[in-house]
Specification:
The chain is mostly helical. It has one domain: Helix Hairpins (Orthogonal Bundle). 76% of the residues lie in helices and 0% in strands. It contains three helices and no strands.
Length: 102
């Protein structure tokens, strides 16, 4: 395996760990952290492509900056919603938020 494949294997492993955290956990803080892990796995793959493919010079890094910006906004909004719901219900468990349906 060449060097770029190792980066893709690591990115896939990080993405799978993040997906497991989103699907298996009920704590909303851990779900948000798992989403961030998934976004960082994509960032790793984009930077690997940007560094090892001459035709994509700089493009992967540009996309990484966009993903980091979107991730920061997502965390800000997500944590604000979690904190607001925690003040009302005193829990961060996703199972307790069934009143938000509909």
């Amino acid at each position: 395996m060449n060097a770029v494949e190792w980066y893709f294997v690591l990115a896939a492993l990080l993405f799978c760990i993040g997906a497991y955290g989103v699907l298996a956990r009920r704590n909303l803080i851990i779900v948000v952290m798992s989403l961030e892990l998934m976004l960082n796995a994509v960032n790793l793959a984009l930077v690997a492509v940007a560094n090892f493919v001459p035709a994509a010079a700089g493009r992967g890094t540009l996309f990484v900056l966009f993903v980091i910006t979107i991730a920061a906004a997502e965390v800000t909004v997500g944590l604000a919603i979690i904190i607001a719901n925690y003040r009302n219900r005193r829990t961060v468990q996703a199972d307790e938020y069934h009143d938000m349906k509909g």
